[in-house]
Amino acid sequence: MKRLLVTVAVVLLAGLGQAQIPKDGRCIWYGPGPQNPDKDPGMLLNNAYTGQGIVLDDALAVARMDEHCDILMKELREEFGEKVPMCCNAGNIADMTKQFSMLDPFLGKCPACKTNIKMSFCYFTCHPRHSNFLIPTKMYHYKDVEGKHQEAVWEVDFHVTDYYTNTTFDSCKNVYMSELNRPAMTVLCGNEGYNCDPYKLFTYFGNNSLAPFAITYKWGNTTTLAHDAETGKTRMMTPFLKSTTPCNSNDTSMHCLCSDCRDSCTAYPDIPPHHELPMVGSVDVITFTLIIIYCILAIAIIIAACVCWSGNDGGCCCDCTCSCSQVISAGMEKGIRKAFTSFATVVAKHPFLFLVLGACLIITLSIGVAFLKVTTDPVELWASPTSKTRQHKDYFDSHFSPFYRTTQIIITPKGYEWENVTVKDSLGIERQYLFGPALNATFVQRVMKLQTEILALKGDLNGQPVNLTEVCEKPMAPQYDHCLIQSVMNYWQNDPEKLNKSVEQGDYSNKMVECISNPTNIADPYCLGSYGGPVLPYTALGGYLKEGEVLSLEPRYTESTALIITILISNHLEKDLLGPAMAWEKRFIDFMKEVTADEEWMVDMDIAFNAERGIEDELKRESQNDVSTIFISYLIMFAYITLSLGNVSSECNRLLIESKIFLALGGVTLVLLSIGASLGFYGYVGVPATLFVIEVIPFLVLAVGVDNIFILVQTWQREPRKEGESVEEHVGRVVGKVAPSMLLSTTAEALCFFLGGLSDMPAVYAFALYAGLALVIDFLLQMTCFVALLTLDAHRVEDNRWDVLCCIKGSKSSKQMKESTICYDIFDHFYAPLILSDIMRVLICLVFTGVTCAALASAPHIEIGLDQSLSMPEDSFVLKYFKYINDYLSVGPPVYFVIKEGYNFTDWDEQNLVCEVYGCNDDSLLQQVFLSSLMPDDTYIASGAMSWLGTYFSWLSDNVAANGYTFACCRLDADGNFINSSLGFDFNAKETCLKVDDFVDGRPKPELFMKHLGDFLSDNPHGTSCSSAGHPAYGQAVKIVTDNSTGKEMVGATYYMAYHKILKTSDDFISAMDWAYHLTDDMTAYLRSQSKYSSDIEVFPYSIFYVYYEQYLTMWQDTGISLGISIGSVFAVTLLLTFDLTSSLVILATISMITADMMGFMYWWNISLNAVSLVNLVMAIGISVEFCSHVTHAFATSVKPTRLERAHEALATMGSSVLSGITLTKIGGIFVLGFAQSQIFRVFYFRMYLGMVLFGASHGLMFLPVLLSLCGPPVNQVLLKQKRRKDEVTALEMQLKETQKQNIALQRQLNAQMSVNSSQQQEARVSNVTIQHIYHHQSCTPQQPVYPVLPQSQPQPEAHKPQIQQEKEAATSHNTSDPSAPKMDDLPPTFEELSQTGVINRGYQP
Q1: Which one, 77, 175, 228, 612, has least CB within 10 Å?
Q2: What's a single GO CC term here (predicted)?
C-alpha cells in the first residue's frame, strides 16, 4: 500500500517535471559560520545568505563535488556550463565530505545506497536554489571578528517527498555490516536500532550529535507554505524529489551485491539433501525388509523343526571316508596337542626356572612404563595427525594465534518480574518495551557487583600474583589497556558508579534500549565498552530466543532472561606460556564455587560458569573419583575368581587344601602383569597410551585370561590322573588337551585387535595395539608361569598341604575326590537337556533371529557423536554450564574461512573473486558465505564473514578526497612516516597516505596495495573516528610475508570470520562442520577455475570443535571397516587353525549376531556411536570369541554319534567353564560400574560391558549350542577312528589287566594245590597247558608267566593274523625303549580280529 501511495504521489508530481526545483530559488546560506553553541567544538553553523549562488572556483572543492555529488554537478553543468554557481564554498564542501567519510564504513559497499543518501545532502548543502525545499526556522545572531552583527542558520526544515525517502531507504535497508553482524541501518538509525524505518532514518540524520545543526525533515508530496525565519516571510515550498538508483541496478558502478541488496540475489546455494531412509508406510525400508525376512525365516524354522530336525543329524558314519579338510584339521589338532603337551611337560618339570624367566621378561618390559606417555590432550586423542581437520588446525595455529581461551558466566535472575518500560525514541514518540527479568535495574546492579569482584581476582603462580589484565585479550592495545569483556555492564564501561547514577537519574532504561539497539553509539548515550569497542547484545544477553528460533534481523533483546559475561583470555601455541592464564582461571573457578555456595549471592540469581581449564580439571577429578569404583569392580572379580576356582569339598578339613586361592591370585596377577608388560613395551617403542588403554584393556585381558584359567583348571580337575602318570605328565596332558582351543581364541582375538591398529583414529589405534600385545603376553605367561603355578599347586594338593599357608599339612581325604564341579553337573544334567530339547531349540531360533532383525532395524538410527555432558561427573559445575549454553546462548562458535598462502590480492580481478564491495563478483567467496547465512537452518551459518579487504579500502580512502589529513585514518607526518595514534585530530599529520589519483573505483592501484596494509593492521580507531581501523578486528586475520622470488611483501595466509548458529546437539555440530567443508570445497574449486595466478590455492574452514567432530563424518564407514576387519580376522584365524569351514562359518554368524545385537542395544539404551563405543564394539568381538570358540571347538572335536549329543557334551564341558569363567566373573564387576560418578563410565562402560556379557553369554550358551546341534560340522572321521582305536586299546589294556589278575589268582590256587597234594600236580600241569594254549592264541604275553612253562619241543600252530593286527604290529615294532610296556602284538585280538580267524575269545573259562 505504501508503494502504491508513493506511485500516486509521483504521478501527481510528474507535472512538476524539471520544475521540481523552481528556477526562481536562491540560497539560504553560504560558507561556514560560528561554532554551534549547542554542539561540540568543531560543529559549525552556516552563515545566512539570501542571494544567488556563487560560482565555485576552488579546484579541490570542485574535485570533491565531482567525487561525492556527481549527479548534482552533472545537472548544474547542463544548466550553467563549467562555471557552476553554488550556495556553498570550499569550507562547506570540506565539512560535508568529512561527514560523508563517516558514512563510507557503513554504506561504502553499496554504491547505489551511498549515492542516494549523499544526493540529498549534496542538494541540501550546495544547490543554488535550495530555498525551494529548505527554509530556516531559527537564526543565530553573533558578532564577527570585526564586531559586526551577523546571522547564521541555527535550525532548518527540509521538505522532502515520501518517494525519495522510501526509495532511498529501500536501496539501503539490507546493507550489511559483517563486523557487527547486523544491518547498517540499525546503526545509522541511532537509538532506534532494529526499529529503523525510512522516516526514523532521516530524522536521526537531522538530529544527532554529529549533525552540525538541527535539521527537521518535513514530508509531503505537494507544495506548501512555510514561514521563513531568515526573512520573516511566508513562502511556497516544493518538496525535494529526485529519482534514485535501485540497489540491483544494471549499472555496474551502482550495482550492490546480494549481501547488501536482496534484489541482487540470484541463486542460493544448493543444499545437499538430508540422507533419510525411504519409507514404506510408517516404517523405513530397512525395517520393512527385515520384517519380511524374519517372517520367512520364522516359517522356515518351524517347517524345518517339524520335518527335518528328527531325522539324520550328521552323526558318525562307520563307512564314511575322511575328507581332506578333516585329515588336515585332525592333523593340526594332533600337532598342536602334541607340541603343547611336550612343552607344558617341560615347564611342569622345571617350574621355578620358567617362573624366573617369566619374571625377568615381565620386569624388563615393565620398566618401559617409565618412558610411557599418556595422551590426555583431546586433540591428540580424537584426531589423527593425518586428518584434514587436524592439519587445518595445525595450519591455523601456526599462521595465526591459537583460538582464545574463554571464561564465561551465565546468570539468570530469581524473583524478578517482567515489566513494561516506556522509552522515548528520536522522534519524541513514546515506545513500550517489555523488559525481561534479566534487565531489571536492581538485578543488573547486583551482577555489576559480582563482575567487579571477578575482575579484581588475582591468581597465584609460584607465589606471584596474576591479575586479569596480565592475561586477558586487549584488542585496542596499546591505546586502551582494558580487557575485552562482553557484558551489558560494559555499556557503563564496567563502572558501578556510572550504573548507579544512571539508575538514580532514571535514564537506565533509555540507555539500555539505546545501547542494545546501537552498541556503536558514541553520542549520548555513549555505549562503547571500556576496551574501546562495542558490546554486541547477542553475546551479552540470553534467553530472548524461543525454542527453535535462530538469531533474526529483529531480535527481541529486551526480553532477555539471562545476562552473559564473557572474558577472553590470551592463548599461546607454546603451552609453557599458559601458566599465568591457568593460574587466574583456577582462582576464578574457586571463587565462583564459593559464590554459588553462598546463599547471600544466590538468593536472587542462579549462576553457571566455566573457564577454559574447567573441563580438563573436571576430567581429572572424574578419573580420580572413579578410581575407587574401578578398584572395587576388579576386587569383586578377583574375589570371585579366587573362591570359585577350587573344588568345594564335603570334608571341612579339606577346604583349605582343595581351594585355589594362591593359584587364582597367581593367575590374576599374571593377567595384570601382561598389561604392564604391554604398557612397558610400547613405552619403549614410543606409542602413547590413552585413557581407553588404562580403563578398558584390564577388563578385556581379565575376561580372556580368566576364561583360559578356568578352562585349564577345570579341565585339570575333570581329567583324572592315569595310573603311573606323574603330576608333570598329567599337567602336560591337560594343557595339550585345551591348548588348541586356547590358541585358537587368543590368536583370533589378538589378530582382531592388531588389525584394528589400521584405524587412523588415535584412540582406536592405541587401544588395538596395546590390547593385542597384552593378550599375546598373557597367553605366553599362562603357558609358562601359570602352568608352573598349576604344577606346584598340584604337588601341594597331593602332599595335602593348605592353600596359601603351604607349611601347614592337612589330613588325607577319606573319600575319592570329585572330578566334576557343581556348574558342570548343572549344565550336564539340567541345562543342556533343557536347551537342546526340540521345543526350546525352536523357541531359541525364533527369539534370537527376531532380536537380531530388530537390532539391525534399529542400528541405522543410532545417534552419532558424544554428548559433551557425558564426560563430566554428575556433580560438576560444567554440566550446568553446558545446559545454560543450550538454554540461553543465541549464537554459536565462530568459523574462520582460511585462504592459504599464495593468493595474489594486489590484482583487481583476483580481489573480485573474494571481496564483497561494489565491483566484486556476485558469486565471490564472501558472497557465498553470506548467501549461506540466509539459510541458517540448513547451513548452520548465522552471519556473513567479516572482510578485511573492503574495510582496508575504506580505511585507505578515508578523507583522501577532502585532503583531511589531520583526521584521516591513514595519515603521514612530515617525514612520510605513518602516524599510529588514537587522536581524532593529530596535528603532526601533513598528508594522507594516498592521493585521489592513487585510487581507481575506490581501490588502490595494484602497486600500492601492500604499501600501507601493515599500517592498517596495526591501527586502532581514532577516538570516536576511523571505525575502519584494522587492528581490533583484523590484527591477526592477515599475515604479511615476503615473496622469496621478488623480495617484495605479499599477503600470506588470511581468514574471514563468520559465526555458526547456536549448536546444541552432536548432530548440529557434525552438520555445521559438514556444510562448512562443503562450502569451502566449492570455494576452492571456484578460485582454482577463475584465478589467473593461483591454480592450486586452497580454502578451508576452521572452528575450534571441528577437530573433535571430523571422525563422525565417516563414523559409519570407520565402524564398518573396523568391525569388518575384526570379524574377518576371527574367521580367517579360525579357518586356518581348524580347516573346518562349517565351524568357522558358525562362529562368524554367531559373532556377527552378537555385534548386530550390541548395536541395537546401543540404540535401545541411548548409547551414541563414537570412538568410545567403537572401541567397545571391537572389544565385544574379541570377547565374543571367548564365548563361541571354546564351545565350537569342543563340538568339532567331539566324536559322539549325533550332533545333539556332541552339542550336549560341548555345552557341559566348555559351556560350564565359560559361564563360571568369563560370564560370572564379569557380572559382579560390571554392576559396580553402574554406581560410578562418571556418566561416561555408566553409559559406555557399565551399559556396553553389560551388553557384551549378556549377549555374548546368551549367544554362546544358548543360541550357539542350538545352532551347532542343527547345522554344526559333521563328526571328524579321522578323530573318530583315532578315538575308536584309542578306546579299543584302552579296552584291551583293561582286559589284559583283568586276565593278569585271573592268572595270578589261578597261580595261587595251583601253588596251594601243589603243596597239599603233589599227586595232583600233573593234572595241574595239564590245566596249565590248556590255559597257556588259550593265552597264546590271545597273543597277550607282556611278561613271563610266574607258573611253570611247558616244553617247546613242538611249536604251536599260529593263527593267521588279520590286517588290523598286522598294522598294530608294524606300528609298535619300533617301541623297544620300555621293555615293560605292552607291544601291539602282545595285546589280545579284538572281537573283529578273532572273528576273522574263526576263534571266539570268551575270556577266562574256569
Answers
A1: 77
A2: plasma membrane
